[in-house]
Specification:
Layout: H1 2-10, H2 14-17, H3 23-38, H4 43-54, H5 63-72, H6 83-102, H7 106-111, H8 114-118, H9 122-125, H10 140-167
Helix pairs in contact: 3-10, 4-10, 6-10
Length: 169
């Protein structure tokens, strides 16, 4: 029975299927189905996944791909758009939340209002880059980093959901 559950979720894995459908639709469907599973799982499973994904957070920022993307879509950017800064700050929110969870300081996530930022994807947070949502997959290093951060963001949200629901009084 458990094998069937994971097989049914496996085909929704955004890391495997993102290229075939719109990014936000794929992540949304994955998030919805994964949430159903998380509600029945124990916290240790989620923490294990967070720790595994956390090892991938130490990659350097993909400046070359970001610059190529910026150069290709130069006409679409406004003068004050700072894609590298916005991506870096968004990803730092995810990284900080990861470290708070690992250190057992999830209260910090709520106190520093990181939770509100975690609830939205990068393209939902920064509407001015919405036109890049379908194009980012053409820049492999940038796209890979984006997916790593989005994947761990989803796990962090699930961890916080389970912690709040089952572990706090």
């Amino acid at each position: 029975m458990t094998t069937w559950k994971w097989q049914s979720i496996d085909h929704l894995d955004p890391l495997k299927n993102m290229r075939s459908e719109k990014l936000s639709i794929g992540l949304g469907r994955y998030l919805h189905n994964f949430l159903k599973l998380v509600m029945t799982e124990k916290q240790s499973f989620i923490m294990n996944e967070i720790l595994i994904l956390g090892k991938k957070l130490n990659n350097p920022f993909p400046y070359r791909d970001a610059q190529k993307l910026y150069n290709y879509f130069y006409d679409y950017f406004l003068e004050d758009d700072t894609l590298n800064f916005d991506l870096s700050s968004y990803w730092m929110t995810i990284n900080a939340s990861f470290y708070y969870i690992v250190k057992g300081k999830t209260k910090e996530i709520y106190q520093k209002n990181l939770f509100e930022l975690l609830n939205k994807s990068f393209f939902d947070t920064f509407d001015e880059y919405k036109f890049l949502e379908e194009e980012i997959k053409n820049y492999p290093n940038l796209y890979s980093e984006y997916l790593i951060h989005e994947h761990i963001r989803i796990y962090i949200l699930h961890y916080l959901f389970v912690e709040k629901r089952y572990c706090r009084s």
